[in-house]
Design a protein that fits this description.
The chain has 9 helices and no strands. With 209 residues, it is mainly alpha-helical. The chain has a single domain, classed as Up-down Bundle (Cytochrome Bc1 Complex, Chain C), CATH 1.20.810.
Length: 209
């Protein structure tokens, strides 16, 4: 195809793709080994839909919910972007948990893959924080009660809980949750994902027990 030839001359994408297709896949690899890649695909979709939503969302308590409604009801494809982002967050958590159970079941956290496991577990915590801060952003009744429930839970922690509860309620305002959600957590994700995939590339896919 002329277009593919044009791209190949300038990017080498065809050569790169043929090289990747030639890589051998171990016989023991099943569908459950794909959940790392599935998680990455969902993260990319979350990034794209999230970028779209930032153009219309207003990170102010008095305007947040109305801006979400306007985006969903008045902006072309706004409803699709929002629902892809919202349901994608739930599916992402399920995919990451499945990936972690698969790694744990096959004991792929053992030597020499300790850093694979630690970076992957850190990404699970980051995804979890993405979910919490994302729920807060619309600032509706669900957002309020999610914030209350989690801060109440932290308040039950021994020794430090009562000292953390009130600062957490004060800190996770709509505007701060927005900055954490679209700036801080994506930077952390990029660092740990890069490290995680470098470790996976270095040590390869773990074998069966």
């Amino acid at each position: 195809m002329p277009l593919m030839d044009w791209l190949e001359q300038r990017t080498g994408i065809k050569t790169y793709w043929e090289k990747k297709k030639a890589l051998l896949i171990p016989d023991h690899v099943t569908f459950f080994y794909c959940f790392g890649g599935i998680s990455l695909t969902i993260i990319i979709l979350q990034l794209l839909t999230g970028i779209f939503m930032t153009f219309f969302y207003v990170p102010k308590p008095e305007e947040a919910f109305n801006s979400v409604l306007k985006m969903s009801n008045e902006i072309p494809l706004g409803w699709l972007m929002r629902n892809m982002h919202r349901w994608g967050a739930t599916i992402l958590i399920a995919a990451v948990i499945t990936h972690m159970f698969n790694v744990f079941y096959h004991k792929a956290y053992q030597k020499p893959r300790e850093f694979n496991w630690l970076s992957g577990f850190t990404m699970f915590l980051v995804v979890f924080l993405f979910s919490i801060t994302g729920v807060i952003l619309p600032w509706n009744w669900r957002s309020y009660w999610v914030l209350v429930m989690w801060t109440d839970y932290v308040g039950t922690w021994p020794l430090i809980g009562k000292f953390l509860k009130d600062p957490l309620i004060a800190y996770f305002s709509v505007s701060r949750s927005f900055i954490i959600h679209i700036l801080l957590l994506p930077i952390i994700s990029a660092v740990f994902l890069t490290f995680h995939f470098k470790m996976v590339k270095r040590h390869g896919i773990s074998g069966p027990l």
